[in-house]
Design a protein that fits this description.
This protein is an alpha+beta fold. It has 3 helices and 9 strands; from the N terminus they run ααβββββαββββ.
């Protein structure tokens, strides 16, 4: 039930027969940690929680909170989008395994400290792809600098798109080479 401070509460009966932008969400009384884990396992982005005895108020009051699911997996770095500066890059191009093949799963352009970005760019430049074709099928930009797929990055992300691309990816660091078996595998 949605309370409207001093007015008649809005419930399912109030909304019946009205085609409006207001949608009433089901209330689930559960342990938030267990609920968040379940929501994450379904590939959803998170949950919205609220103090049951508080009405909605605009702004950040703490009565309503959005809790996002965070997933973390290892992905192969297969390229980077260059910038005008030779000291960094705009984003890393990532891949996962589908069977024995690497496939593009998106890019990551956030989560880098400046020193890490400079260090990583130097490593990537030594791994530049020497063939004409990229190491993964890639329908996007042609200004990608492709690299030999040997570096593995730990990436946090919120969810997967319907096209098997990462949503809201953030770089967390490089993984050790011996962890190659842990590179994410798509179904």
């Amino acid at each position: 039930m949605l309370s409207t401070a001093g007015r008649t509460p809005i419930n399912e009966d109030t909304l019946k027969g009205h085609d409006s932008a207001i949608r009433l969400s089901e209330t689930i009384d559960a342990d938030p940690a267990i609920l968040l884990e379940h929501v994450g396992s379904l590939g959803l982005e998170g949950i919205v929680g609220k103090q049951l005895d508080q009405p909605y108020r605009s702004g950040r009051t703490g009565d309503w909170v959005k809790v996002k699911c965070v997933q973390s997996e290892a992905f192969m770095i297969v390229g980077y989008e260059s910038t005008a500066s030779s000291a960094g890059f705009a984003s890393l191009v990532l891949a996962a395994y589908r069977g024995d093949e690497l496939v593009h799963v998106g890019s990551v352009g956030t989560g880098f400290k400046q020193a890490e970005m400079i260090r990583l760019r130097k490593i990537l430049d030594k791994l530049r792809w020497k063939r004409k074709q990229p190491p993964v099928p890639y329908p996007g930009k042609t200004d990608i600098v492709w690299v030999e797929p040997t570096l593995i990055a730990e990436i946090e992300f919120r969810a997967w798109t319907g096209e098997d691309k990462l949503r809201h990816a953030s770089y967390k660091g490089l993984r050790e080479r011996q962890d190659n078996a842990d590179v994410y595998k798509l179904d």
